[in-house]
User: Which sequence fits this backbone?
């Protein structure tokens, strides 16, 4: 029987509850939104006891569906003040579902702010342990210490020092498959700070003695799993070398942020091309791997330095753009060091790169000063005021320096994909409850109806985040519907499944409305409407009334029926 776990950090107690029948078709992001809207005051302090941190695997997680074990982390965002879902790969999502838990809800706040705790979940039950030995540790060191205490099958969810300090750029780290590196992050929105504020340093999920969740209709489930796996492997496999190899394309399209987005093409883009990582595997070691059991995408690159020593894994396009070109740093090895440092501290590389570039633009560091950037980030957990400000994100840096040109939307730093060049993606940034988040619904191709394209991209990505599928698997709604019906023995229609994504978006919008956001917040910074991208002359030119169309459901189009999730 599916169950829910509630962990009350105020009383250090755990309660199991039956999973509500009316939530049968919810998982991941949609489930997180439903719980937050029902149980959390949208006006609460994100770092206070009234906020809840939701750990929700997708409804296909724990099964044999390929690449379907992602975990949604939800809560009121310390960064934006609105609702937030951050999504991560790694092993914990698969394992939590195999133990029979559809969601883990962390509420309350430890009474002694000096203490740290670990929640341990296994087939033998759940317990809360005090863990003074983990306090203040960076994520790799904390993962190593936990590895000494638990079996090789255990997966770890970690709060880094940035989260313990309550920095609003803090991420939640997940260990990956095989290596158990804490290199997968539910990064955006500062949910690591919400976790850290509760005194929760780690979650251990050990599924020893369990097996994959069985489908109700094995005769339908198994062949469809084989079908989607075969089709993916026979297809273009856009992410076979990870997202880092999209650098040349983004640079050509004028969506490769440079010098705090004052330019959108970088003169040293070739030096940041992820294919150089792939080419270095032969001499440096490393290679491509998957972050979770059952992944067929294998998009994660394992990056070694010139001496052949491991540095980081999953050095992705967004990190190369925000921590690289946006800071005018054209050195792969230096960006890899920054990525590792952000993973160690538990910081979102998008938010941190945007904050660092803005600080450079304000004169705190010179553009291109990689060593200076690394040295400053290394002080985040050492009491340095400027370093902590960087850890609080783009808007915090803007306030610190009284800047007027701040690349953030609804409090969240803008990702690499440029809304002036890609106006339909700009509509997503303006209307998504998440703020500037490319995974909410990226639209990179020219479209006739930009608002409709944004709405449909947001809908399928919300559904994908609810299913447990990785967006890089690129499932269609029909794929998700077919596998869900076979898994749970239901007969949901295409429209029923699409409604799950739409209702998720509505719940998120309603949370933000109650938090105090209004129509005036559904827009981009004015400078993005007036300051043209130098290389193509583009500005964000979408009228406000066109943006607002996204909030009214449009008829399902033929394009949506064949559309694939992409982030």
Assistant:
């Amino acid at each position: 029987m599916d169950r829910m776990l509630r962990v009350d950090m105020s009383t250090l107690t755990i309660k199991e509850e039956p999973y509500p029948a009316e939530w049968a078709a919810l998982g991941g992001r949609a489930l997180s939104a439903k719980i937050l809207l029902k149980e959390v005051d949208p006006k609460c302090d994100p770092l206070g006891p009234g906020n809840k941190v939701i750990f929700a695997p997708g409804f296909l997680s724990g099964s044999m569906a390929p690449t379907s074990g992602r975990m949604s982390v939800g809560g009121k965002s310390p960064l934006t003040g609105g609702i937030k879902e951050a999504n991560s790969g790694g092993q914990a999502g698969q394992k939590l579902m195999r133990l029979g838990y559809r969601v883990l809800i962390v509420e309350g706040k430890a009474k002694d702010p000096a203490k740290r705790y670990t929640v341990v979940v296994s087939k033998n039950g759940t317990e809360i342990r005090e863990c003074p030995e983990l306090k203040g540790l960076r994520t790799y060191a904390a993962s190593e210490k936990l590895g000494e205490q638990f079996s090789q099958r255990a997966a770890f969810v970690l709060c880094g020092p940035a989260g313990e300090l309550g920095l609003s750029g803090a991420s939640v780290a997940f260990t990956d498959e095989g290596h158990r590196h804490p290199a997968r992050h539910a990064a955006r929105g500062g949910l690591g700070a919400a976790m850290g504020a509760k005194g929760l340093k780690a979650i251990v999920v050990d599924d020893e003695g369990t097996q994959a969740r069985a489908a109700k209709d094995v005769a339908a489930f198994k062949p469809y799993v084989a079908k989607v796996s075969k089709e993916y492997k026979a297809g273009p496999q856009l992410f076979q070398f990870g997202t880092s190899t999209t650098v040349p394309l983004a640079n050509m399209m004028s969506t490769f942020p440079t010098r705090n987005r004052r330019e959108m093409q970088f003169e040293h883009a070739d030096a940041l091309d992820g294919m150089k990582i792939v080419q270095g595997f032969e001499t440096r070691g490393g290679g491509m791997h998957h972050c979770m059991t059952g992944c067929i995408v294998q998009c994660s690159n394992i990056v070694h330095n010139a001496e052949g020593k491991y540095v980081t894994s999953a050095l992705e396009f967004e990190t190369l753009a925000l921590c690289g070109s946006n800071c005018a740093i054209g050195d792969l090895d230096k960006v890899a060091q920054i990525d590792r440092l952000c993973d160690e501290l538990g910081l979102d590389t998008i938010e941190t790169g945007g904050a660092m570039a803005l600080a450079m633009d304000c004169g705190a560091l010179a553009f291109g000063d990689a060593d200076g950037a690394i040295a400053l980030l290394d002080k985040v957990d050492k009491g340095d005021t400027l370093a902590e400000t960087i850890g609080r994100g783009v808007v915090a840096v803007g306030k610190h320096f009284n800047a007027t040109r701040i690349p953030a939307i609804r409090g969240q730093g803008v990702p690499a994909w440029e809304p002036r060049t890609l106006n339909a993606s700009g509509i997503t940034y303006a209307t998504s409850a998440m703020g500037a988040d490319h995974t909410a619904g990226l639209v990179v191709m020219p479209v006739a109806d930009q608002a409709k394209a944004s709405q449909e991209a947001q809908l399928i990505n919300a559904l994908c985040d609810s299913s447990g599928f990785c967006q890089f698997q690129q499932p269609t709604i029909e794929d998700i519907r077919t596998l869900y019906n076979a898994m749970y023995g239901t007969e949901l229609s295409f429209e029923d499944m699409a409604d799950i994504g739409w209702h998720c978006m509505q719940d998120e919008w309603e949370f933000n409305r109650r938090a105090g956001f209004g129509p005036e917040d559904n827009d981009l910074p004015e400078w993005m409407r007036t300051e043209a991208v130098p290389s193509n002359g583009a500005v964000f030119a979408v009228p406000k009334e066109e943006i607002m169309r996204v909030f009214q459901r449009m008829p399902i189009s033929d394009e949506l029926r064949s559309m694939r999730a992409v982030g």
Remarks:
- The chain has three domains: 3-206, 236-404, 423-562.
- The chain is about 35% helix and 15% strand.
